[in-house]
Each structure stands twice: as C-alpha cells, then as structure tokens.
Amino acid sequence: MNILLMLLPISLVLLGLAIAAFAWAVRKGQFDDLDTPALDILDDAPPKQREDARAREGDDGA
Amino acid sequence: MDIPVVPCHHCGEPVGDAARRVDAGGRAFCCEGCAAAAAWIEDADLGSYYRLRSASANRVQADRLDLASWDRAELQAEHSRAIDGGREIVLLTDGMRCAACAWLIDRALARETGVLDTTANAVTGRIRIAWDPARTHLSALLHRLAMLGYRPYLATGDAREQARLSERRRWLLRLGVAGLGSLQAMMLAEALYLDVNATMPLPTRDLFRWLTFLVSTPVVFYSGWPFLAGMARELRARHVGMDTLIASSTLLAYVASLVETIRGGTHVWYDAAVMFVFLLLAARMLEQRARNVATAQVDALARAQPVFAIRERDDGTRESVPPSALRVADVVCVPAGEGVPADGVLLDAAADFEEALLTGESRPVRRHAGETVYAGTTCRERPARLRVTATGTATRLSQLAELVDRAQGHRPPLAQLADRVGRHFVVSLLVLAVCVYIGWRMYQPERAFEVTLALLVISCPCALSLSVPAVLAAAHGALARCGVLATRPEALDTLARATDVVFDKTGTLSDGRPARVAVEVFDDLDADAATRIVAALEKDSGHPIATAFADVDARAWAQAVVARPGQGVEGDVDGRHWRFGRADWAAHRADDGGLWLGDGTHGVARFTLNERPREDAAIAIRALRAQGLDIHLASGDSEGAVQRLAHVLGIASTLARQSPEDKLARVRQLQSEGRIVAMVGDGLNDAPVLAGADVSIAMGEGAPLAQRAADLVATGPSLLRIADAVRVARLSRRLVKQNLAWSAGYNLLAVPLAAAGLVTPWIAALGMAVSSLVVTLNALRLARTSTEMAA
Questions:
Q1: Which residue, B372, B298, B267, is CA-closest to B698?
Q2: Are the beta carbons of B615 and B604 closer than 8 angstroms?
Q3: Identified catalytic residue from B17, B343, B504, B711
Q4: CA B436 to chain centre
Q5: B366-372 long-range contacts, CB within 8 A, separation 24+
Q6: Please, are residues B634 and B658 in contact by the beta-carbon 8 Å criterion?
C-alpha cells in the first residue's frame, strides 16, 4: 500500500491544478457567453477576411 | 397585379406591396434601413448571419442617430475605463435576439479601424467594446451598430457592470470548486465504502478520512457560502426557510463526520455533505440562469436614460448638461429622435412623441404646446422645446416605477409549499433526533450517536429540498423553449392556480395594424371606387395606415404623392387631385376621428379603421377557456371598439374606458371574490395592474418597464404561449406535489426504521441518494413533455 503515499499527493496536486485552471478560465471570461462561440466554427475562414479588411483599410488610409 | 405580402428579408416583418423595396437578388425589404443593413452585411461577407440566426432581426431605423455625445469626456469617465492601449466600455442594446446577433456584432465591429476587442452577449444584451481613442471615435463604432439595427444605450455605469460580472464569475467558480471537490471526496469515500469487512488498516482509514476532510472543507465553506449566508439571514429574520434547511443539514453531516474522524468512529458522511452542496448549487444556478435571461435586459433597458440634456440659457445660447443637473423651470431642447430627459410642458409648436416606454404603444402621439410630455418618451421628426416641471425621481416615469416596486412589496406573500413543509419537517426532525438520542442513550449508550446520525442522514432532506428546485429548473427550461421567461420564482406556482385571465386590449389582443371597418360615401363615387383611390394614394406612402389598403387592387397609379405628417397624403389619381386624412384637412369639416377622402374643400367618403385582433387571439382564448380559465377584457379604449373586439373573440366580460386605477380595482374585486387573477398586458400604464395581479404576463414587444413589473415575459408576440405557459405551470405544480409526496413517504418509512436502529449509516446514505435520483428523474419528465408539446 506504499504506492498510496505517492498517488494521494499526486491526486491532490492534480485537483489543485484543475481548480486553478478552472479559476483561470472563469476569470478570462471563457464562460461568459456559451452560445456565440459555437457559431464561429460554422462559418468558413472569417479570421482571414478580418485580416483582409484590416489590410484594405490600411491601404485606404495611406 | 397582386403581390402577396412577404416577410422582410432582414427583420421578418410582413411587407405590403405599398412599401416594398426589392434588391437585385429579388429579396424584399420593409424599409430603407433594413435594405441598407442587409446590403452592408452582404458586402462585408457576413451573409452567413442569415443562415445562423434563429430569430429575426430588429427593424432598422433609417434615421441617423446623433451619437456624438458618446464621445464626450464626462460620459466616458463615468461609463468606461482605461485599459492597455485604449478604453473599454460596456453598453446595452435592445435588438440582440439570438447568438447570431452577437456573432454579427463581433464581426462587424472587428472590421472597424481602432477596435481592439469586442464581446457581445446575447443573453444579457450587453456589448463590451475596447477601442483606441487615438484611432477612432466611439460614436463611429456606435453608428455601425445603429445602422445594423442595434441601438446603443448607456449601461448602469462601469462600477456596477464590473460588479455584476464578477458576481456571476464568483458563482461559476463556486460551482466548479464544488464539482471538482465533490468528485475527489466521492472517490475517497468510495474506497472507504468498499472496505465492507473492515480489513483496511486503521492508519490508512484515518488518512483517507483526513484527506476527504481536506477536500470537503472548501466545498462546504466556499461553495456552500451562499447557503450559509442565507441561513444567517433567515435566522436573523426569524424565518426558517430553504437555506436554513440546506445549510443545517450540510453542516450536520460535515461536523458529525469531523467528530467521527477525530474519535475514530465507524463512519463518515463527507460525501453526503459535498454532493448536497454541489447538486443544490447546480439546481440554483440553472434556475437563476433561466431567470437572468429575462431580467438582465429588461431591468437595464428600463433604467436607460438619455445621455445628455440640452439646456437653453437665458440669453438663448445652449449648453449640454447631464440630466441630473436639470432644475425645474429650465428650458430644455430635445432634438428629433432623442429621449426626453425630464417631465415638462411643451413650449412651441406641436411635436410627435413616441411613448412606448410608458404605454407600450409604438405609434407616436401628437402633443401640442402647453401639454405635458414625459421623461422617457422619444421626440420624433421635429425638435421640441420644453419647460421642465419635474426631474429625477419626481418624473412620471420614476413614479410609475416606484408604484410598481411598492405594489410588488405589498403583494400577498405566497407561502411556498416546500418552504412550509420543509420548515415543519426540519423542526420536527430535530426534535425527533433529540428524543431518539435520549432514548438510545438510556437503552444502549454506545449506539446512541450512530443511530441518531443514521436518522439524520437517511432523513437528510435532500430529496425534499431537491424536489422543488429540480422541477423549477426543468420548468424554466420548458418555458424558455416555448418562448416565455419567468422573472420571479413564485410565478409558476401562482400561474398554475390562476382562475381568471384579464387582458388589456391595446397591443395584446389586437395586432396594432389597422383594418377597414366601414366606408360611408357622400357623393356620386361608390365605396369600391373610393377605396381604390385611397389604395392608390397610400400605395407608396409607407404609412402604417397603408396596410389597411394593401389588399386592394388599386388599378390606377397615383402621381405626385406627398405625405403631410399629421394630416394625411395627397396626390393625383386619374387626373384628379385628392387628399386623404384628417377631416379638417381633407374634407374641410370638423375633425371627427375618421379618415376622409376629399379634395380639400369637400369630402366624398369617410373611412373607419379599426385594429384587427391578432390572428392567434381567437385560438389562444379558446385554448385558455378549455383550461378552465375565465377570460376578461379591461381596456382603456372606447366602448364600441372594445365590444367589437370582444364580439369577434367571444369574450363576455368586458369593461371599456378603464384607467389603470380602474383596472387595478377590477383585479382587486376579482381577488376579493377569492379568484386568482393572471393579467396580460404590455404598457407601462398597465404596470401597476401587472404588479397588483396575482401573476402577470407581459408581451415581449411591450414597454420594458411593464416587463420589469411582470412575473413572466413572453419573448414573442404569439398569444398561444400563454396557454402553453399555463400548461407547463400546471404540470410542474403536479410534479412538485408528486416529488413532495414521494420524499415525505420515503421519510415516513425510513425515519422509524432508522430510529429503531435497523439502518446502518451506509444504507442510509444509499437510500438518500436513490430518493434524490427519483425526484430528479421525475422532474426531468417535464422536459420530455414540453418537447412533445412543441412538436
């Protein structure tokens, strides 16, 4: 049963890590909106267009 | 050529051919605003919005709003905060109907120069924008929003917005800690449970117990803090309620386990304590989330106020000041399209005001010089000047809001079934536990503690306290699916017991669109010919009245049509000049409320227009009557109009020309006859009545303040939702009763067994878990039934 002496601290450390990760995600606002991000994957390649739009606006400004 | 009525491509409102605009792709639009928004969306390659959305967009107002005041330093100091590389503001909007709207806003704003980051949240109706003031003005970004149909409103101020957000995050964190902690505690407890023959060495067993203690402590005290704080509050108020029940049983299980751990007893119950906290926290969050959807937007929009007021100095020059700086007798200028900042008397020419916030009526009302206009209304078309008569809390808007709050405070307290049962249960259980302990102490002292604990655990009112939240959570979900949001927890219970439904006519039963009721002719023209002339005139006017003539084939085209605001339209049809509108303008006679067709000196036909009942009104009323409810109609409209509508819908009990006070008196009278009244309305004038009725339902298109006063808000215009809501409410009440009966029956069986010392604590824990499971599964039946209903 000596293995327990190793496994129990590991499980406690993992628990601490899980809670820390969850707290980080909550603080970063990952759970603030659960509906909108689901739509992002349904649309094709919007980030690229966003870059394009930025670039175009940059050209206009120049 | 008869073009059928089609929905607008952007906002989904029906478009008659009179006002239609069709773009190159053959899509119809109701107005310039919607067409421009859709064109921009297509241009920006965001056309997927139309594919992704699950609800129609808001109708876009074509007029350009003046948003320059959002750029002012005073406003930004109060409502935004500095972040790395720019500033950040949280604002409210009224048009976000589904997640696709939030998606569209995110994408649209990301395209603007100078935007650092945005998040739009469709649930709370809030948009967070981080921008770089050096590269763009906030107003430019807000113009983009307004142009897409999302009108910006000031939120409650930066500090309160941050507090709201961090409160929500704290709850989530509590739930996460409870979930992870109870998983660990269960795992360790499982090892202890599996040691049936007590073969585990004592030091190992104690190590496991201390570890379980370690992981349970944050769950009980951090995650369970809302319950502990609730118990403290309830005890201070000398009112034993749900929180006392939850907190005391959690603490009992926790403290008893700790005692057993220290003295090396036979059993610990940490797992019961943490599971209890976790399950109840989850149930409470589900319930809250459903309610937040309804209140977050409603509440904030009701408090929305104009950003700045323009005050006229004595020398005629103007300055802009915050509304709070206005004093009585100041002269205020209200630009067209802006909100009125304070109550006041109109000084110059007549102007139109949209009083939707006060009355739920979206059509502008004309006010003449000397008449009072109210804070919260919107000035349309023409700027107005007023002399302030009341500001701040003295305005009619504030008074009505206060009336609502007071009426809610005086509402007869609804004794909640579970609360009542639970209170007696917990008190008598504690008394019983003491008796059992004393009894065993005398009979067999060494077993006294164990038996008492088994009694407390097996009767641990888990099932009892879960039975109501579980059903409520399922019911809120079912209601949301059929388009009704409950803003107060007791609403469902009362709705299930309602015996009478009182409707307010305007906007609730009628569709707000006029229809022809009667045509009288006074000349050689026959009625059909007169109708055709009017149809030709109205065809391209874009006027609301045009819908009343949309079904008429005009056969002729009107030339040189000019709309005269407040008077009517004029134009040439078949070579003759016609006017159609108010009697004094079109027919040169005294205004009699009807609409006249004439040439300016002589009238040839008089039209009576009336609002039609909504298409689903008759079905909805039949459905409500089939549920055994009595239907009443109490309206502020004239006798004739009310009677006509009541006749069409088959409502026997009607009252016309009712003031809000009359309506409230009518409700009180019904209540004094022992009836339970559900009120359906949509205007703020109805707000006191909504608050005074036992349970109230506000229609989603109505005034935000009326929604704040209501217990339930229907998110769409369909009246059938009311019948659905009643059905869900009754079903959930039945389920609550079943659950209470089950958990009471279980306790009646288990408590004597435990008191007799026949139950070991681990059987007690199993029994408790099974009874909770049964209760939860029973509640989930509600979700299944409602999907069947929707199908």
A1: B298
A2: no
A3: B504
A4: 50
A5: B366/B566, B370/B345, B370/B346, B371/B345, B371/B346, B372/B343, B372/B344, B372/B345, B372/B346
A6: yes
- Option in B44, B123, B214 nearest A33 (CB): B123
CA distance B296 to B300: 6
Collect all residues with Cβ–Cβ distance below 8 Å to B720 and sequence separation of at least 6.
Answer: B616, B619, B620, B623
Pairing of strands B21-22, B28-29: antiparallel
Residue type, B20: R
C-beta atoms of A33 and B119 within 8 A: yes
**What b/e readout covers B539-563, taking b as 16+ CB neighbours within 10 angstroms?**
bbbbbebbbbbbebebebebeebeb
- Reply yes or no on whether B637 is catalytic: no
Q: Å from A56 to nearest chain B CA? A: 10
Question: What pLDDT does B791 receive?
Answer: 38
Residue carrying the six token digits 């929500």: B168
For the stretch B56-101, pLDDT in tens is: 776 676 666 667 777 877 777 777 888 888 888 888 787 777 778 8
DSSP B380-424: ESS-EEEEEEE-GGGSHHHHHHHHHHHHHHTSPP---HHHHHHHH
* Smallest Cα distance from A23 to chain B, Å: 6
Backbone Cα Rg of chain B: 32
B307 phi and psi, to 5 degrees?
-70, -45
Strand partners, B87: B82, B131
Closest by Cα among B164, B98, B791, B779 to B492: B779
Entry pTM: 0.56
- pLDDT tier, A60 (very low <50, low <70, confident <90, very high otherwise): very low
Mean pLDDT of chain B: 76
Structure-token match 């919005």, residue found: B49
Residues in chain A whose Cβ is within 8 Å of chain B? 1, 4, 8, 11-12, 15, 18-19, 22-23, 26-27, 29, 31-33, 35-36, 38-40, 42-43, 46, 49-50, 53-54, 57, 61
Q: What chain A residue is nearest to B166 in terms of C-alpha separation?
A: A27
Place of tokens 């215009």: B717
Write the DSSP string, B56-72: PPPPPP-SPP--GGGG-
- Asked if B157 and B80 count as a contact pair (C-beta separation under 8 A), the reply is no
User: Which of B666, B650, B668 minimizes the C-alpha distance to B658?
Assistant: B666
Tell me which chain A residue has its CA closest to the CA of residue B171.
Answer: A26
How far off is chain B from A53, nearest CA to CA, in Å? 6
Contact B152, B109 (CB under 8 A): no
Write the burial class of residue B763 (CB in 10 Å: 0-12 exposed, 13-18 middle, 19+ buried). middle
- Computed on alpha carbons and rounded to an integer, the radius of gyration of chain A in Å comes to 22
Summarize pLDDT for B670-699 with one digit per residue, the tens. Answer: 888 888 888 887 665 666 777 778 888 877
Minimal CA separation from A5 to chain B, in Å: 10
The closest of B340, B307, B345 to B328, measured between CA atoms, is B345
Assign residue B162 a region (left: φ > 0; alpha: ψ between -120 and 50; beta: otherwise). alpha
Closest CA to B330 of B305, B317, B346, B311: B311
CA distances for B278 relative to B50, B54, B253, B459, B530, angstroms: 40, 33, 14, 18, 72
Q: What's the mean pLDDT in B290-300?
A: 54
Q: Check if the interface score ipTM surpasses 0.85.
A: no
Contact at 8 Å (CB) between B363 and B417? Answer: no
Paired strand residues for B334: B384
Task: Show me where the domains of chain A are located.
Answer: 3-61
**Chain A residues whose beta carbon lies within 8 Å of the beta carbon of residue B121:** 32-33, 36
Which chain A positions have a beta carbon within 8 Å of B176's beta carbon?
19, 22-23, 26
